[in-house]
Amino acid sequence: xxxxxxxxxxxxxxxxxxxxxxxxxxxxxxxxxxxxxxxxxxxxxxxxxxxxxxxxxxxxxxxxxxxxxxxxxxxxxxxxxxxxxxxxxxxxxxxxxxxxxxxxxxxxxxxxxxxxxxxxxxxxxxxxxxxxxxxxxxxxxxxxxxxxxxxxxxxxxxxxxxxxxxxxxxxxxxxxxxxxxxxxxxxxxxxxxxxxxxxxxxxxxxxxxxxxxxxxxxxxxxxxxxxxxxxxxxxxxxxxxxxxxxxxxxxxxxxxxxxxxxxxxxxxxxxxxxxxxxxxxxxxxxxxxxxxxxxxxxxxxxxxxxxxxxxxxxxxxxxxxxxxxxxxxxxxxxxxxxxxxxxxxxxxxxxxxxxxxxxxxxxxxxxxxxxxxxxxxxxxxxxxxxxxxxxxxxxxxxxxxxxx
Length: 404
Ligand SMILES: *Cc1c(COP(=O)(O)O)cnc(C)c1O
Known about the structure:
By secondary structure, the chain is an alpha/beta fold. It folds into 2 domains: 3-58 and 309-403, Aspartate Aminotransferase, domain 1 (Alpha-Beta Complex); 73-308, Aspartate Aminotransferase, domain 2 (3-Layer(aba) Sandwich), CATH 3.40.640. Helices cover 41% and strands 18% of the residues. The chain has 14 helices and 17 strands. The protein has helices spanning 3-15, 48-51, 60-72, 83-96, 107-126, 145-149, 154-157, 175-181, 205-218, 272-276, 292-308, 310-331, 354-362, 385-403; strands at 27-31, 34-37, 42-45, 100-104, 132-136, 167-170, 186-192, 194-195, 201-202, 221-225, 252-255, 266-270, 335-341, 344-349, 365-366, 368-369, 374-377. Strands 4-12-11-10-7-5-6 form a 7-stranded mixed β-sheet, sandwiched between helices. The model has no long low-confidence stretch (mean pLDDT 97). The structure holds pyridoxal-5'-phosphate.
């Protein structure tokens, strides 16, 4: 590492609150599926800023739309209408079949809004103030208090207790555990269609269908968190969101991460009764959420997805990634499982993967974990087979260096 890059890192460690153990590189610029650090070293990017930069870096149409918007107007206020928000909402509705959109600045805020909408919906129905939410163990929904309260990882919650309360945890893909927890007091069941941070666990067809039925039977809303697994990441023909491959509709869904492809924007979307009988004027708000710049980003991203057939491309390249990962699993005894959907994949190891990720980084490959023992693959959706092959070569080398 150059003295210059080391100096920048040292500076950061003096100034930034140390809430991350960061890898020892300063990323400087990106081009397509490549990133470059301050020293000019090139990396193949299989993280995409954690499932954010779906279109790769430096997309011409995306960049010029943002520049154009900056010259028009960046921020208004939600007390006035702005066209990018209307266009983005129209496109989101078209690809999701949901009825109403509320834009946020982040994923966690989308979860907050979804939870508030569910509580309001239930309160309007029966006037009770003790409604419960059912969430899944090993889930991840964000770091704010509401989102943390439904995050099924005690380690994240413990130092910050008490949580919002009235949350019960069930087991992903164990329908009986949801059945045991649900009652007429339940206002919502929240889950990620494919668990991301918790280790890349897709919901089974039977489970998601069963949870939908349990919600209907108990008058509870189904909230699907698609912040990581949505926006075409899991492929499936025309499916922009993972739940569309199951034929099961949520009442409320959340999106963020790839929605803005780098510009902070999220949203929660509501359908049917949940849209009609929940949040009204005065119930919820945000200063920045839905601003013209962020919404122009979302609008443009959705437009590019359509024009470039991004989801169809995921369907083309993802099976190849799966095949190559399965080959790697066959080669290394320390790899115990490969699972995922589309370009959201995980390799589970019988040991911590940190050393392998460090070696990969040295070899010019950016990877990230999901929990201690899982390497997560969330590349830009535009990767091709050649990049998959390049990644596999680099990963193979890193595994040999780290584990043998
Ligand atoms: C990243 C993530 C969040 C939180 O989003 P932020 O933008 O970091 O607040 C919520 N849910 C899931 C599934 C995520 O992957």
